[in-house]
Specification:
The structure is a single chain. With 1002 residues, the protein is mainly beta. It has a domain at 631-881. 7% of the residues lie in helices and 52% in strands. The protein has a 47-stranded mixed β-sheet that branches. Strands 9, 14, 19, 24, 25, 30, 33, 35, 38, 43, 47, 52, 56 and 59 form a 14-stranded mixed β-sheet that branches. A two-stranded parallel sheet has the order 48-53. Strand 2 and strand 3 (61-64) form a beta hairpin. Helix 1 (2-21) packs antiparallel against helix 3. The longest helix is centred in the first third of the chain and has 33 residues, at 90-122. The radius of gyration is 42 Å and the shape is flat. Keywords: Signal. Residues 323-342, 547-575 are annotated as: Disordered. This is PE-PGRS family protein. Residues 1-28 form the signal peptide. Residues 329-339 have a biased composition (Polar residues).
Length: 1002
């Protein structure tokens, strides 16, 4: 009783003391990285300001504005706040708590002593005991905020320099200035084994703003020259750990690099002159790599990262309204969001995490953007004169842009649930308008731009969902492209020109891999890579004026990079769905005029690639390893076109385009159920209009060279041996081609269209599978379809002149050889292929009324549909198709016809065909006597008397025919004739009824 009473009272007192003191006092003994925030909150925002060498001119004076150099920062406030929230040091904590602890210990001793006396009086039989009660102590449990961090690192440097404004006066400035700012905050924390611990919210944003080298003239003059350079960096890596925790080690990290540049612009306003010769450079870097861990936890190790590289430029533009503006210089910018560190297999990695043996852990969400925006080197005039870029005394406008966001990421969710999944959306889409001249009553010339762009967003990904439930899945949207207008001149009552060249490389995403062995609903991959260069360049147009556009480019656009997933013994696992799309949409080399002149000249070398090879493995799985793909390659282009209405329009182009979507597809479902099946709809297509001239009262020339290769999908192979509904292939392979080129049309004018075409398209390929030992397995259902429609070499005129020149080489292959095996009684190994091919061409047609027209055309077309010629070949041409010639239908023999025995209007075959040993005589043909009676006799050929039935040949037929139509060469020798069927020789004579002359085959 004594012991029980003392311990009960002691426990009550100690508990009360703890309630008074709090649940714990933080220790200051933790490991603190000097770059890491001491507390849970570390927010730093800075606005460095540099203002220098700006001037205003007015009324005969130039006022040089004062310089400002200062930094506006949140540090005075945030440092105090961060310090207030920082954990209290262990020593100070114990010092401040010492009085309370001492009082609690004293009270405990007194009460314990009384309890001892009472206990002794109640327990004499047990003998005297001197129980002692230890003093209460306080132990540090570490950071009271459990390693959670909120970090902000923002920089907004402002640089204003070299600007000149002349209002009712003149201002001249020369400036060379540099501004640099950098702040690094690495975040290192730990939430392993904790609850709601080690989580990080980290915002890094570098937003430098540069306003430099601009000139304005308003009833005055503003002139500036020089350079400005600006850079800002808000960097920092993130490392944490949520192993064996609950809602721990998670990271949310937006990272923005968004430099803004307004530099070297000239604004010539009313009665003013503005002139700039200025070079601007702007750089921004933000964020870093992210590493965390979420294994054996719940809601741990997840990452949401948003790196955005968005450089913005509005520079070196010349704009006038009732004045004059001249701008030249170079403008460059670089933006980098995120960084990499060696990761899986030494691959430089942006995000690394894991969610093995966990729940809702190790997942990644990462939208990533590299999206430069550029408006540079343009000239615009409204009742004025504007010039940007190169002239005799002026250097070229040099434009350079680099944007990089994110990188390769990896995770895993082995043996987990809802873990190791990836949602990935890298986008690389530069949007640019440069070297465009436009005027309304005036002159605008934007010339000599040289543009280099490199935009990269994201990279490949890898995850692993082996042995998991809904783990290791990944979804990817990967758009890469361009949206741009350059090298364009357009005028309305004036003169305008634009000329530019560019070299551009754009990449979004990469290879995506996963695994789902012995799992459920895991290791699946969905990817939609889209390569879409959209642009207008090298175009000149005018309405009552002159417009000229000249441009050249080399462009490489890549979206995604194929996919792979592996599975054995899975359920609903390792399936792959892909829809790679490559679609260059381009208009270039076009000249048009309405009461004026328009000239457009352009060249392009474009490579557009979406996706790559695919593989899905579902061996001995259920609903596993299936593959569905819709690769589409469709270059759609309009180029080399000249058109005018009461004017002159000239368009000239040289096009080299290579478009590819997807690649080979492989899968396996051996020993599985609904496994290893492939459903595919590849479409390798081409759509283009080029080399056209059209005029109504004037002159129009369109000259184009078109070299296009378009490919979608490839060979497919799978295996369903020993499976049920496994290794089947359902395929619709499409190859549409639509082109109009080398045509001319005039209505009271002169038109010429020249189109040199080399187009090669490929869609799908061979299909190989097997269903040996399986049921409903290894079957192939294949529909390869080719549809080619072309109009070329057509010249039409009403009261004018039209000349068409077309040289066509079109080669296309759709489908291939299908191979399978399996027991057909089990509906396995079925092979059903239905090829359909149509070629419809209208070409070499000169048509004129009170006109001069001509067509010079050549045509080589080779289309293979599953290794067969198209069933329907329908040419419409004056040179090849006469009124007595039919289109070629090579597969018409396969169509059903009425049996000869059912035709009552035909003479019995025995009455017409010769019998062995004798040829039919003409006397057996009804009405032949009337013909033979008037025909002279033809001398027999040497040796012809030995022929049975030789007397049926008329003699002296040559005397009855015009001699000029007889061939003058020697007749071909007749070495031998089939005596059983001597009329077989007549089958060697072709084209006699087709209007092409007689041709005797050897």
């Amino acid at each position: 009783m004594q012991t029980w009473a003392k311990r009960g009272i002691q426990t009550a007192l100690v508990t009360g003391g703890l309630l008074m003191l709090g649940t714990g006092i933080a220790s200051a003994d933790e490991n603190v990285n000097p770059d890491a925030p001491a507390g849970p909150l570390d927010v730093n925002a800075s606005i460095p300001v540099d203002i220098s060498k700006n001037a205003v001119g007015s009324l005969g004076k130039q006022v040089n504005l004062p310089d400002v150099h200062k930094e506006i920062s949140t540090k005075p406030v945030t440092d105090k706040l961060n310090g207030a929230l920082a954990p209290v040091s262990k020593t100070e904590a114990f010092k401040s708590a010492a009085p309370a602890i001492s009082a609690a210990n004293g009270a405990t001793a007194k009460v314990t002593g009384a309890a001892s006396t009472i206990g002794q009086s109640l327990g004499h039989a047990a003998g005297k005991r001197a129980d002692q009660v230890s003093e209460s102590t306080v132990e540090s449990t570490g950071d009271p905020f459990m390693g959670n961090k909120v970090v902000g690192n923002l920089a907004l440097p402002i640089q204003i320099t070299g600007n000149a404004v002349g209002v009712l006066g003149n201002a001249t400035v020369d400036s060379d200035e540099t501004q640099t700012y950098g702040h690094n905050t690495d975040v290192h924390t730990n939430g392993a084994g904790g609850g709601f611990a080690g989580n990080v919210v980290n915002l890094d944003w570098a937003l430098p703003v540069q306003i430099s080298g601009n000139a304005l003239g308003l009833v005055g003059s503003g002139k500036t020259a020089g350079s400005a350079a600006q850079s800002a960096a808000t960097t920092g890596d993130v490392q944490t750990d949520g192993t064996n925790g609950g809602v721990a080690g998670n990271v949310v990290s937006p990272q923005g690099a968004t430099p803004v540049q307004v530099s070297g612009n000239a604004l010539g306003w009313f009665l003013g002159h503005a002139e700039t010769d200025f070079d601007g450079n702007s750089d921004a870097t933000s964020g870093g790599w992210i590493v965390t861990e979420g294994s054996k936890g719940a809601g741990t190790g997840n990452v949401a990262a948003v790196p955005v590289a968005l450089p913005v430029k509005a520079s070196n533009n010349a704009v006038s309204w009732g004045g004059d503006a001249d701008a030249t210089g170079s403008e460059t910018s670089d933006a980098t969001a995120g960084d990499t560190t060696p990761g899986l297999h030494g691959i430089p990695s942006y995000i690394q995490t894991h969610g093995d043996d966990s729940f809702l852990a190790g997942n990644i969400v990462q939208p990533q953007g590299a999206v430069p925006a550029t408006v540079v080197g343009n000239a615009a005039a409204w009742i004025g004169n504007s010039a940007a870029g190169t002239e005799v005394e002026r250097a070229a406008n040099v434009i350079g842009t680099s944007a990089t966001a994110g990188g390769f990421s990896s995770t895993a969710g082995r043996g987990a649930a809802g873990s190791g999944n990836i949602v990935d959306a890298p986008a690389a889409i530069p949007a640019e308008v440069f070297c465009v001249g436009g005027t309304w009553i005036g002159n605008a010339h934007a010339t000599g731009c040289e543009n280099d762009v490199d935009a990269t967003s994201g990279g490949g990904t890898y995850t692993n969902g082996n042995g998991s439930f809904l783990g290791g899945n990944s979804v990817h949207a990967q758009p890469a492209g361009t949206a741009e207008v350059f090298g364009v001149g357009g005028s309305w009552i004036g003169n305008a020109s634009g000329s530019a060249t560019e070299n551009k490389k754009v990449t979004a995403g990469g290879y995506n891999g996963s695994q789902g062995n012995e799992s459920s609903g895991s290791g699946n991959v969905v990817q939609v890579p889209v390569a879409l260069p959209a642009e207008v360049f090298g175009v000149g147009g005018s309405w009552i004026g002159q417009g000229s556009g000249t441009a050249g480019e080399t462009k490489d656009i890549t979206a995604g990079g194929g996919g792979n997933t592996q599975d054995d013994h899975g359920a609903g696992s390792s399936n792959l769905i892909a829809a790679p799309i490559s679609a260059p949409v381009q208009a270039f080399g076009i000249g048009g005029a309405w009461i004026g002149q328009g000239h457009g000249t352009a060249t392009t070398d474009t490579t557009s690639t979406a996706g790559g090879d695919l593989n899905a493995d579902g061996k001995e799985g259920f609903l596993a390893g299936n593959l569905g793909e819709v690769p589409v390659s469709l270059p759609a282009q309009l180029h080399g076109i000249g058109g005018s209405w009461i004017g002159n329009g000239f368009g000239e182009s040289d096009n080299l385009t290579d478009s590819t979507a997807g690649g080979d597809a492989t899968a396996t479902g051996a020993g599985g159920s609904i496994a290893g099946n492939i459903v595919q709809v590849p479409a390798g297509a081409a759509a283009s209009v080029f080399g056209l001239g059209a005029v109504w009262g004037g002159v129009a020339h369109g000259d184009a060279t078109n070299d296009v290769a378009s490919s979608a999908g490839g060979d497919s192979a799978t295996n369903g041996d020993g499976g049920s509904i496994a290794g089947d292939v359902v395929s619709a392979q499409l190859m549409p081609v639509a082109q109009v080129f080398g045509d001319a049309a005039s209505l009271i004018g002169t038109a010429r269209g020249t189109g040199i075409n080399s187009t090669e398209t490929n869609s799908g390929g061979d299909i190989t599978t097997s269903g040996v030992g399986g049921a409903l397995s290894g079957d192939i259902f294949d529909l390869p379809v080719a549809a080619v429609a072309q109009v070329f070499g057509v010249a039409a005129s009403l009261g004018g002149v039209a000349h068409a020149v077309a040289d066509n080489t079109t080669v296309g292959t759709v489908g291939g050889t299908d191979t399978t095996a399996g027991p057909q009684q089990a509906l396995s190994g079925l092979n059903k292929q239905v090829p359909i091919g149509v070629v419809a061409q209208v070409f070499d047609i000169p048509a004129g009324l009170v006109a001069v027209v001509s067509s010079t055309t050549s045509n080589v077309t080779d289309i293979a549909v599953a290794n067969h010629e198209p069933q329907f070949d329908l040419p419409v041409t004056t040179s090849e198709l006469s009124a007595t010639n039919l289109p070629k239908l090579p597969s018409l023999k396969s169509l059903p016809v009425q049996k000869r025995s059912e035709r009552t209007d035909l003479t019995e075959i025995a009455q017409v065909l010769p019998v062995a040993g004798g040829a039919p005589s003409l006397s057996s043909v009804p009405g032949a006597e009337a013909v033979t009676a008037v025909l002279p006799q033809l001398p027999l050929a040497p040796g012809a008397s030995a022929l049975t039935g030789s007397d049926v040949l008329p003699t002296n037929i040559g005397g009855a025919l015009p001699q000029a139509q007889l061939p003058t060469g020697q007749l071909p020798a007749l070495p031998s004739l089939d005596q059983a069927n001597p009329t077989a020789v007549l089958s060697k004579v072709t084209d006699l009824a087709g209007g092409k002359g007689m041709h005797i085959q050897g």
